[in-house]
């Protein structure tokens, strides 16, 4: 059985001061496949101290020096893409189709950050003042278990480009992925203390990082509830924040959309990553005039989806990450029926041919109103709702009637009409006739879906502070 018993501080693999051991599971089999030794408060403090020491030098590095580090990181991650893919499949059940398509992003984010850095103007003249965009200081990154590798890489790339040092607290559920990533960072010969990796619990290591006076900025990807807690913690020392939080994204099928194509894309957006995606399109808004046609298309499409072994390239939906998440999603499926919604496809329990593993039947509810909890709360599993609307304005109103605003999807045969609708949606990103985003676009949410943006120059600037010198 695999034992991961090292963290990464000051450019070295070290044994944690913490002694707690947490099990690691294969969600396809429910079997324990390893254990990870968790860091504690002392380890978090040591990592911040190492980052603070390194910042004094790293914040003064040249553009060329940071470009060289980014390129080495890209090469190191590229060399381990197969290992990273396999870890994601084994450790949290990501489907092979998903990781084959998305895992190159773990390396390419460093190349993208390098492209931004090459041409970025850190010094600008405004009136009588010289304005310098300077690194904000020691940063902390707290990341979830779903698509952990890309979330970590994105934050690392922006921090390094800006000249910040960083302490990363990945989820303890992604320890195998974290171990491989840490080996990549070590192979890239990043200067000691610039990147530190401390695997531990949020209520232990996370508390230190979000309250520590020497941490200037926190980047967090995860639930809205935890984001609110981090925001409260950060207020005492006025830390800069980037919060990429939960969502309840609408997929608006306009009445002129090609129904088979739009339904297929909407279901892809809803079931991606086994439904464990913050930007999943979990509310399908359907025109009343086309409702029966859309429901028939949903039933036909879901019937073709393969649920099972995530390592199989033909699998569309794999298992949920653990028993806790499985139970949570089952509770929501029961809740939906108690609220009066009807199960169109799916329902409670595992698929009949999968007696083991945390598999959930891809489930779609009809007879749903936007006031039901299954239409308002983030379920984080393969559970979607169909909500009918009368006219275009009602579709827009329903889309915006949510506390969230991370991503939205619009499907129409008329691109200009879709753009007009998209400009009225309260979301950080709106995709038209597609299920996957643009890696060059800023990513983040409005309302309770977060603060700030990641990717490209927007991500870089989250790690910078303007300083004006006036003479």
Brief descriptors of the model:
21 strands; Aldehyde dehydrogenase (NAD+); oxidoreductase; Ald_DH_N; 2 domains; 471 residues; Aldehyde Dehydrogenase, Chain A, domain 2; Aldehyde Dehydrogenase, Chain A, domain 1; 7-stranded mixed sheet; 16 helices; Ald_DH_CS_GLU
Q: How does this structure look, described?
A:
The protein is α/β, with parallel strands linked by helices and 471 residues long. It folds into two domains: 2-245 and 447-470, Aldehyde Dehydrogenase, Chain A, domain 1, CATH 3.40.605.10; 250-432, 3-Layer(aba) Sandwich (Aldehyde Dehydrogenase, Chain A, domain 2). Helix content is 40%, strand content 20%. It has 16 helices and 21 strands. The strands form five sheets. It has a seven-stranded mixed sheet, with helices on both faces. A six-stranded mixed sheet has the order 10-9-8-11-12-20, sandwiched between helices. β11, α9 (224-235) and β12 (240-244) form a beta-alpha-beta unit. α2 (63-79) runs antiparallel to α6 and α2 (63-79) crosses α7 (175-187). The longest helix has 18 residues, at 41-58. It is globular and about 65 Å long.
